[in-house]
Amino acid sequence: MTVFEAAAIPGEPPPADSVAPRDSSADAPTSVARLNGTIRDFIARWNTVWVEGEITSWNVRGSNVFARLKDVRSDAQISIRVWSSVRPRIPGDLAIGDHVVAAVKADYFVKGGDFSFIVSAMKHVGLGDQLERLEKLRAQLRQEGLFDPSRKKALPFLPHRIGLITGERSDAEKDVLRNAELRWPQVRFRTEHVAVQGERSVSEVLAALQRLDADPEVDVIIIARGGGDPQTLLGFSDERLVRAVAAASTPVVSAIGHENDHPLLDDVADLRASTPTDAAKRVVPDVGEQRALIAQLRARVTGRLTQRISHDIAQLEQLRSRPVLRSPDPIIDDRAQEVWLLASRGRDTVTRQLDAAHRATAELRASLRALSPASTLARGYAIVQLDDGRILNDAADAPSGAALTVTVDRGSVRARSEGEVVEAG
Q1: Is this structure's pTM higher than 0.85?
Q2: Fold (topology level) of 132-285
């Protein structure tokens, strides 16, 4: 029996006007229902098989799970379903990227014509090859210090221009632009459109990053994509891109996926945003919040100034109310009399000291005159000096013909010795 042999759909009689698939023709076609029933009955005879693969999609709907498995060595994929009755028997931590083996049985949904595999058992094998390499690279880069918080650059409070790297006409671009403009209407962007998945993704993102990092007007760069499964996000874990972001002089914000997605770009970026919308909120301040903050600060400053002025006015009034300031004339009069007495006493003291100094000076002048050689010369005495300046004390020092200088009370005269010595009587 072939897949196109006649087969009845359980619970439903074959349509009266329908023929078996094997007997169909252009004039007598079979029905879709009968064809689907034939396919299902054929597939139902397949046995359960164990299959190995990597989970690339894991969607929980109610108590059931609808997922996809990808071959670890090629791009081949299958759809799988895990019913609520099987979920308690499989690991509870299964997630996208896990490398698993599963017992599956083929199933064909007659009503929708959907082909999938029903899981009866599943267990971990380990990380998928790609995710395993990713984790090894993550550990290497962490050891090199590329993820250290100390090397992350602070974002500017209000960027002059924002660089945006994202897919053209993507939801991520719309989310970033819309939310940024809502928060700060005058915000300016320089957008670089790139492929955000596929073979061209890494090279185009690298080139866009280099252009924006070289633009002096760009103060911060956002790399945005609206999430995806680990397979489509692998480009954002490329070592070349990660190292380029670490070396960039402009702060970089990673806005690649949702909370469960974690490419290496998230670790090396200066800031990780959970979504493109979150990136816009983290990079651009809210103008309403800033205005409210300014109003609050103004109110606080006004309050403090008013309080200070009121306090100073109260202190001034308190000082003015004191008796000494209400009628200061008596104090001034008393102090004026005291100043006059002190000035008079000072003048007397200075006068006495000056008189004593004059007398002392006269006495010193008289003593100086008595001891001065000029007084001796005034009485008729003279001073005789030889040519070499020595004072002549001994007549023997002035032989005949010696030149002499004779100093008297009023001037000096030149003389010459005749060599005679007069003995004293």
Answers
A1: no
A2: Rossmann fold (3.40.50)
Domain boundaries, the chain: 46-126, 132-285, 376-416
Query: Measured between alpha carbons, how far is residue 315 from residues 37, 312, 321 in Å?
Result: 100, 5, 10
Topology annotation, domain 46-126: OB fold (Dihydrolipoamide Acetyltransferase, E2P) (2.40.50)
Which token pair is 323?
Answer: 């008796």
Please state, in angstroms and rounded to a whole number, the distance separating the CA atoms of residues 43 and 38.
9
The predicted-structure confidence for 190-212, as pLDDT tens digits, reads as follows: 999 999 887 788 999 999 999 99
| Alpha-carbon distances, residue 32 vs 12, 19, 114, 143, 365 (angstroms) | 14, 11, 13, 60, 150
Query: Which residues does residue 386 pair with via DSSP β-bridges, in sequence order?
Result: 404
Q: What is the dihedral of CA 211, 217, 220, 226, to 10 degrees?
A: -60
Closest alpha carbon to 186 in 253, 277, 285: 285
| Residues sharing a CB contact under 8 Å with residue 289, sequence separation 6 or more, in sequence order | none
220 touches 155 (CB < 8 A): yes
421 phi and psi angles, rounded to 5 deg: -115, 120
- 379: CB partners within 8 A, 6+ apart: none
